[in-house]
Amino acid sequence: MLSEAGCVVLDLDGPVVRFFARPGAGEGPGAGPPGSVAPDIARDLHDIARLNGTVLPELDGVDDPHRILTAHDQHPGTGVWRRVALEIRDTLDAAEWKAAEHGVETDGATDFIRAWRARERHLSVASNNHPVAVARVLERLGVLDRVDGPVIGRDRDTRLMKPHPHPLKLAMVPAAGGPERHVMIGDTRTDLMTARAVGMPFIGYHGSPQGRELLEAAGAPVVMESMRELLAALPGTARWRL
């Protein structure tokens, strides 16, 4: 797939960075234990709904901030429902801007980005995170200038978030060719569904056995446990140096 691709489209959270990593996680001597701030953010969003009387029973126990946002944003209610949806959106936006300063690089991600671009192939990003936060993460990792294609983040209209094909269509680079000449690298069933919707080849990545099992069960043709596996698969790897 990589040898035939003119462009790689990366999901951000997972293949490039552990976006919601707790401050200090994986950052050298004295670093805190691995963990995610996503459940903390989710609790804040649940509290907003609870204080305003707009609790959705289907979200009971959900700790995915994006699911909470989309459920409220797409609720048909008006008045207080609209106000709560906007407050949840603003709270999540601010939390993601903060999280962008602490995301921990996925091992091998920036090496792959540099090696891929060294082969003069195109690179873009399609994420459900806030676009400003996505760009900030890439800047922190020192690879924003290596992304020559679009950097696509969360649309104001949550109906256009992945698995809607909109983000992947925007992320495509015309010079690379059609969707069959792109390949998406993602870590969720949602990423796989989005790639399928536009006819784009898909390579799965996940750092946990459970995550890899879910991707395999969903029908991902290739699932990796390390982004460094991509380096070994790059065309002409033996002839290039990072």
Structure description:
The chain is of the alpha/beta class. The chain has two domains: 7-19 and 104-239, HAD superfamily/HAD-like (Rossmann fold), CATH 3.40.50.1000; 38-99. The chain has nine helices and eight strands. It has helices at residues 38-51, 65-73, 80-99, 109-118, 131-140, 166-171, 189-198, 209-217, 228-233; strands at residues 7-10, 17-18, 104-105, 122-126, 151-152, 182-186, 202-205, 223-224. The strands form two sheets. It has a six-stranded parallel sheet with strand order 5-4-1-6-7-8, with helices on both faces. Strands 2-3 form a two-stranded antiparallel sheet. Helix 8 (209-217) links the parallel strand 7 and strand 8. Helix 1 packs antiparallel against helix 3 (80-99) and helix 2 (65-73) runs antiparallel to helix 3 (80-99). It starts with 6 loop residues before the first strand and ends in a 9-residue tail after the last helix. The model is unreliable at 27-33 and 238-242 (pLDDT under 50).
Present the secondary structure layout:
Blueprint: E1 7-10, E2 17-18, H1 38-51, H2 65-73, H3 80-99, E3 104-105, H4 109-118, E4 122-126, H5 131-140, E5 151-152, H6 166-171, E6 182-186, H7 189-198, E7 202-205, H8 209-217, E8 223-224, H9 228-233
Parallel strand pairs: 1-4, 1-6, 4-5, 6-7, 7-8
Antiparallel strand pairs: 2-3
Helix pairs in contact: 1-3, 2-3
